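Input (GNAT family N-acetyltransferase):
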Amino acid sequence: MNASKPSNKIEHQHFFELFLAKRDLAPYYVSVRNLFSEKIIYHKSIGNENYFNNKTIIIKDIPDYLEVEIPYEQEGLKIKKVSTYQGYSIDLKAYNNLNDYLSENFGKASRSKLRRYQNRLENCFNISYKMHYGEISEAEFTFIFSELKGMLEKRFTQKKEENYELQNWEKYQKSIFPLINDKKASIFIIYSDNKPIDISVNLIFDKIVYSSISSYDINYAAFSIGSIDMVKLIEWCINNKFETVDLLKGYYYYKQKWINKIYEYQIHFIYDATSFPSVCYANYKAMSTKYFYTLFRLFKKWKFDEFYHNQKRKFYKSDLNENEIDQQTISRPIPSGEIPPSNELNEIALDDYKYNYIKKVLYDFLYMSHESINTVKILERKKTPNTFIFAGKTNNIEVVLNGRTLNSK
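Output:
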């Protein structure tokens, strides 16, 4: 490589945007080898040697199981790699079907619990499943992403956390649509009647499925829909001969029961070793980054991260009404003989938008009582605001929302 001007130019990139969205790693890498499968999954020749003159290129979030090759390494281009976070994945190569995977990774009681969640959901609601992979209309895609955005907003308001995907939502949505039709991404949906209650978006490269973003309707939380979603994704991946499900980084407490591999994310500093400013800057940034993540791991070990997130939640503000997301309720079983006459009650249609706030407590009742949405009557006392009776085939409860006191009988 030829040295020219002494100034150092700095460029920032994100690996997954290049690798999964644009599908082009040029000019930074010429090949990628998947160490899980021992196969080269990307290769492209690079022609513009002068691109790297006096440059330091910082690329974030490269999984270390993807072994990359940079161009012109013999002519003066160099790379430094620094480990950052842990990532989590499921190696599926050894499994012929879902039962094989579950039997090896879950005990009998845990497998029974997973079956119970799905059976209970299907018994209580009119449930269907759909995987979009290879074909989706723009209208349906737009509807699904609108529903997913609403789920994420409510879920993260409930958790009192920021969601960074929402900050770039339009860009993210625009990039996913063509990938689905090219079989480079998939969207899995659980429907109750015709309404999505769980949506997961997965990006695909070769035999790797990246669990990109997912959320669910928090009204169905009792049914552990996230676990049902994961079971369905793993089953689909095995049936379609995918070898790895990459669950990416973060939320280890949820992912640990599913994974069988842990890897490291890296930051790569690619720099022109014939340029003194580039050498100095790349080495300085690599060293300071290494120290930062060493401290980060210590703080995490000492649980300072939990303290930090707890403090952030105290100052969290949302555009949504948090009281509607987490209702305070008082409930009691009510015998059929104590249900008031019909002239003291209004029967509620659940598709009436103004009654959305009662859905979670109703669905919790369905889960606990094994009742079906098709046979439960939702009754509101005319003279007592926010007081409802859920009358099922074998169980009834009276519920007061927002902490009001139940009328004594």
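Residues 327-401 form one domain.
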